[in-house]
Amino acid sequence: MKQFLEVGKINNTHAIKGEVKMQLWCDDIDYLKQFKVLYMDNKGEKQINLLSVRAQKNSAILKLEGIDTLEEAQALKGKILYCNRDDAKIDDDANYIADLIGCYIVDMDTEEEYGKVADVLNYGSCDIYDMESQGKHSLIPAIPDIVKEINTEYQVIKIKRMKGLFDED
Length: 169
Description:
Blueprint: E1 4-14, E2 19-24, H1 29-33, E3 37-39, E4 47-56, E5 59-64, H2 70-74, E6 80-84, H3 97-100, E7 104-107, E8 113-122, E9 127-133, E10 136-141, E11 147-151, E12 156-159
């Protein structure tokens, strides 16, 4: 499992005092607000203190320690910020997308392996697992009627196959 997870990408500056605008890649602004420290790399070697976070439409405005001018903020454009999963609090039944990608999707009754999660999409109502098997992709809604068990430690997602879930030959 990845220790340092992407929370967003700095895509612009905000005002003239060094604030940056970040596209959120995490669930919401409240998730981001729980951190005091973020990281400029995926290994946790370049930490930066997070002084403040506020929402702006679908983005976040961040004030980072040591970034006090427009020029310093501009130098961060395009950078991805990471959090340490040990610093995060998530619901017991929640999973990180990074942990779901690569999981095997298996039939809960027959143990037949259907494929692996290539990506997790969300268009509003629920997450959708993009499953890849032999170069072919299928979309699986992550709803309780279908997804019965998720075990990211063993990289297995057990599903109840429903008629029409996969293209029938």
